[in-house]
Design a protein that fits this description.
Chain A: This is D-alanyl-D-alanine carboxypeptidase. Chain A: It comes from Nonomuraea dietziae. The structure holds two protein chains of two kinds. Chain A is mainly α. Chain A contains eight helices and two strands, in the order αβαααβαααα. A two-stranded parallel ribbon of chain A has the order 1-2. The radius of gyration of chain A is 16 Å and the shape is globular. Chain B has a domain of 38 residues. In chain B, 64% of the residues lie in helices and 0% in strands. Chain B is elongated. Classes of the chains: A mainly alpha, B mainly alpha. Chains A and B meet through helix 4 of A and helix 1 and helix 3 of B.
């Protein structure tokens, strides 16, 4: 496996761990984003950190989006007194629609497979204009368009090195 | 509650996001409720009927998790 394949494998594997941790039967774009934010020392992780998004901040942003979306229909998570499930493990999660879309978009941004970089995964995740990830980023005060530009620039710089 | 009693967000993005969040909350509630019932020694058929699904479906979805959590499960069939 080349460097990109190894990185992609890590993100998908760790994304599945994040999905299980959150009791989701599918790996969604937000789980990939959490996995990207957790890979210390990688270019995509540094790009997220430069926008104030470490793993904890992404988690907080997603939690906020969840509560915000529920509140739009008058529902509060707190009123259910839910504790974390004792063991949030069902079957291994499968790839969900939003994660597939994010990866497809990331791959499509690379002219050839051998040109793909880890930042293309983040690029694909950030390109979604609707859904949980862009809503969470907006609620966290992150300028997604600006971050997207920085990711694109980082990919371009990497290609000219 | 009729459909007209449910507050409907004006922004379609908010309305769609509420659907996603409610599904996620329902999943979390189901996990907690099934665990609570099984700890109270409900049978699989009782839990399945209360949820309106087949007992195979509820067993397939929750058994492994509950066993891992150390919940003592009743036999699936009497």
């Amino acid at each position: 496996m080349n460097m990109f394949d190894t990185y992609l494998h890590t993100i998908i594997t760790e994304g599945a761990v994040e999905a299980q941790r959150h009791g989701s039967p599918t790996v969604e774009a937000q789980h990939l984003l959490l996995a990207v934010a957790a890979q210390e020392g990688t270019a995509p992780q540094r790009l997220l950190a430069s926008a104030g998004l470490d793993h904890q901040a992404v988690l907080a942003a997603l939690d906020r989006e969840f509560d915000h979306s529920l509140s739009a229909v008058g529902v509060s998570r707190a009123s259910f007194g839910l504790s974390r499930s004792s063991t949030p493990v069902n079957r291994p999660p499968t790839m969900g629609a939003t994660a597939k879309l994010a990866l497809e978009r990331g791959f499509a941004a690379g002219p050839r497979k051998k040109d793909l970089r880890p930042a293309h995964v983040l690029l694909g995740i950030l390109q979604a204009e609707v859904g949980t990830v862009p809503r969470a980023l907006a609620l966290a005060g992150v300028d997604r368009t600006d971050l997207l530009t920085r990711v694109q620039n980082a990919i371009a710089d990497d290609g000219t090195e | 509650m009729s459909a007209t009693d449910i507050p409907t967000p004006q922004d379609p993005a908010d309305a769609l996001a509420a659907v996603v969040a409610l599904r996620r909350l329902a999943d979390q509630l189901e996990d907690a409720a099934v665990e609570q019932a099984m700890r109270a020694e409900w049978s699989w058929p009782q839990v399945a009927e209360a949820l309106g699904v087949t007992r195979q479906a509820v067993h397939r979805k929750h058994a492994k998790r509950l066993i891992a959590a150390g919940v003592k499960l009743r036999r699936r069939s009497p």
